[in-house]
Design a protein that fits this description.
It contains 4 helices and 5 strands. It is α+β, with helices and mostly antiparallel strands. It has one domain: Alpha-Beta Plaits. Strands 2-3-1-4-5 form a 5-stranded antiparallel β-sheet. The longest helix is centred in the N-terminal third of the chain and has 17 residues. It is globular and about 45 Å long. It starts with a strand and ends in a 7-residue tail after the last strand.
Length: 149
Amino acid sequence: MTYTITTRHQVTNPSQIIDKAPEMRQKVIAAAAKRLELLQPIAAGPHVDVILAISAWDSVDAGIDAMGGLYADSDIQAMRADNPTLGREISKVLKSGGEIEGQYVGMVRGTATELSDRGFERTWKIGNSLGITAVRASQSIAGGNNVGS
């Protein structure tokens, strides 16, 4: 199972985070994360001027423990001082297909009583035929306004 921790940072100068992204990614991966993605919403209402740092972990405990250690790192402390944390959300990845790549990512949030294999496979097949490189279905389990969705 994979769990993601999404941290929202308020930014006035996104280049500070973007320029340090490769270095930060190496530190997070070295702390046992499966991956780190940085998203900068460009047309997202309340998320404009926010950067989302999404790290993936084998367990919630592994992610939380590693994040505690990462926050002690002086480079990460400096980045966080200039770009305050607005909030954090933990999600469980239910299904995924493909790999996120390219410069742009689209995100859709919704609610459902259950996630069917057939529905997910159909979404992935149609999306992939239209050039979408990845589809991920996650359930928010802690933090933020999306718990349960």
